[in-house]
Amino acid sequence: PADLDAVCAIAGDAPLAGHWSRAQYQEEMASRTGLFAVLEEGEVRGFFILRRVEAEAQLVDIAVRPQDRGQGFGRALLDGAVLAARSWSCSKLTLEVSAANEPALRLYRRAGFQIVGRRPKFYNDRSDAILMDRPLA
C-alpha cells in the first residue's frame, strides 16, 4: 500500500493526471507483470506501466515525481521499459504522448523513438496524441 500511495501521488502530479483510478494502479501492481518503479533511498521516484500485446510492448504510463524531474529518472525508467520489453522478446516498444508534453517528447526522441502517427484533439485539454515507437531488434 505504501508504494501504491506513492505511485498514485506521482500519477496525480503528472501531465494529464487523473486518467487512471487508484483501483487500476492497484490492479497493475497486483498483476506483477507490468508496473515498475525506480527507488532511491527507499522512496519511489517514478514508475512505468508496460503491457505486452502480441510481439509488441506498449508503454501505457510513465511518470516521475515533480521534484525529481530533470535528474535522469525518466531516462532510467524508459531504459528499464526497453529492457523489460526485450526480455519479453518483443520486437517493438510503442507509446502515446500529448503533443503538449515537450519534455516527454524530447526524452522519447533521444531514446530512439520515432513519430508514427497522431490523434487530433485526443486528450481532455484538446491536445493531440502523438504515437511513437522504437524497434527493439
Can you tell me the CATH class? Alpha Beta
Overall geometry comes to globular
Walk across the major sheet and give the strand order. 1-2-3-4-6-5
Q: Radius of gyration, Cα only, in angstroms?
A: 14 Å
Give the SSE string. HHEEEHEHEE
C-alpha end-to-end distance: 37 Å
**CATH-defined architecture:** 3-Layer(aba) Sandwich
- Taken as a percent bin, the fraction of beta residues is 25-35%
Count the domains.
1
The counted number of beta strands is 6
Helical residue percent band = 25-40%
Averaged pLDDT: 86
Task: Report the structural category.
Answer: alpha+beta
Given the structure, what is the number of helices?
4
CATH topology: Aminopeptidase
Low-confidence stretches: none
CATH superfamily: Gcn5-related N-acetyltransferase (GNAT)
The biggest sheet amounts to: 6 strands, mixed
Descriptive labels:
six-stranded mixed sheet; 137 residues; globular; alpha+beta; 4 helices; Aminopeptidase
